[in-house]
Specification:
With 289 residues, this protein is an alpha+beta fold. It has a single domain, classed as 4-Layer Sandwich (Glutamine Phosphoribosylpyrophosphate, subunit 1, domain 1). It has 7 helices and 12 strands. The strands form 2 sheets. An 8-stranded mixed beta sheet has the order 4-3-2-6-5-1-11-12. Helix 1 runs antiparallel to helix 2, helix 2 packs antiparallel against helix 3 and helix 6 runs antiparallel to helix 7. The radius of gyration is 17 Å and the shape is globular.
């Protein structure tokens, strides 16, 4: 059995047209369905999915990044392999096209889980990761109806993915430029294991929204722990989003369990997302539940 769910951010708003994102998300899921059918691991598929989302320029991650208040592009990403509990992350990384690949390299090539700032950039350079080129630099999504966002409100489109492979292994990955108008050096939930990203033997979770609230609730791991404690995945995810809402936060999460059950609760206007069920059906949704 295989399954997948990806998100393109919980900052979707009703007055914006997401046809391009909907078509792109469907294409990505179709490509990943073939990869899973061919026996790819959940970790490879999660990374590849996020890399495609970063490369598209359609979301606030990778090429679609938005700058911080000082005009710099500081990107965050993380991933976790549920079967081994290995994890990797980069925070406030500047100058690279695919932060998710840097996060993977941290996991695989260092004894650490996270590298930040200049150290992360030097490491990424050393690993031969592709710098952001002049011609494709920062296809920023600011301006796409986002001008009304006050600083610190929802970013438009963090990306993330949860995957179950044929061997029953779960993995999750998340990548973002963070919330609009963020302060230099601000790090959100996306690169923080347990907050923005989590995968264990039972569940994989990737979050999107006002990261400070997802940090304060340890949202991704909390969802998995509630599942482990006996709640159904949908109830676990919804109750975490409700807790974030009670604190005053906005956003959503995607989650997948080892039985291929998918959940995607959010309390914002919409959350761009697409999925592949164990039966092989593909779905895409932005506003409907
Ligand atoms: N959670 C991300 C952050 O706070 C933003 C988002 O998901 O849109 O950096």
């Amino acid at each position: 059995m295989t399954a997948l769910i990806l998100h393109g951010g919980a900052g979707a708003r009703r007055n914006v047209n997401y046809d391009a994102e909907i078509a792109h998300m469907r294409d990505v899921v179709e490509a990943m369905k073939m990869r899973l059918n061919a026996g790819a691991t959940s970790l490879d598929v999660a990374v590849e999915t996020v890399r495609m989302l970063e490369d598209s320029g359609l979301y606030v991650a990778g090429r679609g990044a938005s700058p911080n208040l000082a005009g710099a592009y500081e990107l965050d990403a993380s991933l976790m392999d549920g079967a081994t509990r290995r994890a990797g992350a980069v925070a406030a990384l500047q100058g690279f096209r695919n932060p998710v690949l840097a996060a993977r390299a941290v996991m695989e090539k260092t004894p650490h889980v996270m590298l930040a700032g200049e150290g992360a950039a030097l490491f990424a350079l050393d690993q031969g990761l592709e710098p952001i080129g002049d011609e494709d630099a920062w296809f920023t999504q600011a301006g796409k109806g986002d001008d009304n966002y006050p600083p610190g409100t929802l970013a438009h489109g963090t990306v993330g993915c949860c995957v179950l492979d044929a061997e029953g292994r779960l993995a999750a990955a998340t990548s973002t430029a963070g919330v609009f108008g963020k302060a230099p050096g601000r790090v959100g939930d996306s690169p923080l294991i347990a907050c923005g990203t989590w995968a264990d033997e039972r569940a994989a979770v990737s979050c999107t929204g006002q990261g400070e609230y997802f940090i304060r609730t340890a949202a991704a791991a909390q969802t998995a722990w509630r599942l482990a404690g006996g709640q159904a995945l949908a109830d676990a995810g919804r109750s975490v989003i409700d807790e974030i809402g009670a604190l005053g936060g906005d956003g959503g999460l995607i989650a997948l369990d080892r039985d291929g059950v998918i959940a995607a609760p959010f309390n914002s206007q919409g959350m761009k997302r697409a999925w592949l069920t164990p039966e092989g059906e593909i779905g895409v949704e932005v506003f409907g539940v």
